[in-house]
Specification:
Blueprint (H helix, E strand, L loop, with lengths): L6 H7 L1 H7 L7 E3 L15 E6 L3 E2 L5 E11 L45 E7 L2 E9 L1 E6 L4 E5 L3 E5 L4 E6 L9 E11 L10 E5 L6 E5 L5 E8 L1 E2 L2 E2 L17 E7 L4 E4 L7 E8 L2 E4 L2 E4 L2 E6 L4 E5 L4 E8 L6 E4 L2 E3 L2 H14 L20 E3 L5 E3 L3
Antiparallel strand pairs: 1-25, 2-22, 3-4, 4-11, 5-10, 6-9, 6-11, 7-8, 7-10, 8-27, 9-12, 13-14, 14-17, 15-16, 17-24, 18-23, 19-22, 19-24, 20-21, 20-23, 25-26, 27-28
């Protein structure tokens, strides 16, 4: 029985092929995720495990998936994509390979599943949530409910797929006179069984509404903390969507971005309840975590009952924290569908074939919005909001 299929793998196969494969045992993974059952190989330390980071990062219940995108795109052409000559030699439709990781090379970027504009053309989801944290650049959202938006520069979109939705996530190269850098995290957060068929919707957490703290250590060095979900002391994040596992404070779901100055010290506090806790060190050189030297591009699984002292090395360090109380229900996942039983996965494919989760009201599978349009969100009910309020 193979491991769960990533978004890349599912979309590369194509939906029709996945439908024919859904009945095969090799096409579905039954995942009872509870990493707290792993043997503690680091006795007397809050660090339970250390793993190198690849493109997709290891997570645990209630999280399903985390990926870090960092692309250094060229100037945008008239349709906000790379110039056609720059696409030569790329595996268009499945371009997940960086030709040259050096940002100065001009080739440190990927098209993903986009043909003319990088990103992810329309694809379905059911049974979980996507939390998309955009550090740099922009995403253009369009979905099968007719909703749309553009967000970036520190904004977060929290989408509850619930009973089912199609959406496109395109990366418009808005700047035509200079390079376009994109950096984002996409996190998949599971929904409990009782909420897997709620109506799909999304909520915007605009950059200005995300709490940001500047914490000084005894030497006056600063740690900057962004509380995207959960709370730090008396500082609480903006409310997540109402059907989210994160909406109940007892579930202790936290998503934090942590930025330590060189040599800065910060203690990750113990959690109020037992959670699965992962800390991802993705930018910098080296940190010390509970006295253990950790090189960049490593993830740590931590004991949430203990505080964890952190100290940056000679360079600033950037980290992402994911933690939450496990949902502790069976997880059956095939690509973009995450349910509790195999029968529910088969039903998800049947429902998608029949309804396409509302159809696709856009003229193209990879829609982008007007170049001059600012950051906005237009919801399915017609309500529109902007990043400026």
């Amino acid at each position: 029985m193979e491991s769960k299929i990533t978004r890349k793998g599912f979309l590369a196969k194509g939906l029709a092929a996945a439908v024919t494969a859904v009945g095969a045992a090799t096409g579905i993974s039954y995942i009872f995720k509870n990493n707290s059952e792993r043997k503690n190989t680091m006795a007397a330390s809050p660090i339970l495990d250390i793993r190198p980071l690849g493109f997709q990062w290891e997570t645990a219940d209630p999280f399903l998936f985390c990926v870090h995108h960092h692309d250094f795109y060229p100037k945008g052409n008239e349709i906000m994509g790379p110039a056609p000559e720059l696409l030569q030699g790329r595996d268009i439709g499945q371009d997940f390979t960086v030709k040259d990781a050096d940002p100065r090379s001009g080739n440190a970027w990927r098209m993903y599943h986009g043909a003319k504009v990088p990103g992810f053309p329309n694809h379905p989801h059911r049974g979980f949530e996507t939390v998309t944290v955009v550090r740099k650049g922009f995403i253009d959202h369009s979905d099968s409910l007719g909703a749309a938006g553009r967000y970036g520069s520190g904004d977060v979109q929290w989408m509850t797929a619930g009973a089912g939705v199609q959406h496109a996530e395109m990366f418009p190269l808005i700047e035509s006179n200079k390079e376009n850098t994109l950096e984002l995290f996409q996190i998949w957060l599971n929904l409990p069984k009782k909420n897997k068929f709620v109506n799909p919707h999304f909520k915007m957490l605009w950059n200005k509404d995300i709490p940001k703290l500047a914490l000084k250590d005894s030497a006056g060095r600063t740690t900057r903390l962004e509380v995207i979900a959960g709370r730090y002391g008396d500082t609480a994040a903006a409310a997540p969507p109402p059907d989210s596992w994160a909406a109940e404070s007892a579930n202790n779901v936290s998503i934090w971005h942590i930025d330590l100055e060189a040599h800065a010290e910060f203690t990750l506090p113990a959690a109020a309840t037992k959670t699965n806790r992962f800390l991802y060190f993705y930018a910098g050189d080296q940190i010390s975590a509970a006295g253990t030297a950790i090189g960049v591009s490593h993830g740590l699984r931590l004991d949430s009952a203990a505080g964890v002292p952190l100290k940056a090395g000679a360079q600033a360090a950037q980290l992402l924290l994911l933690e939450g109380k496990p949902i502790a229900e069976p997880v059956v996942q095939y690509g973009p569908f995450v349910m509790n039983t195999r029968a529910e996965i088969e039903q998800a494919f049947a429902d998608y074939q029949r309804t396409h989760f509302g159809g696709w009201p856009w003229q193209t599978s990879e829609p982008v919005h007007e170049r001059g349009r600012g950051r906005f969100a237009r919801h399915a009910d017609g309500h529109e909001e902007t990043a400026s309020g």
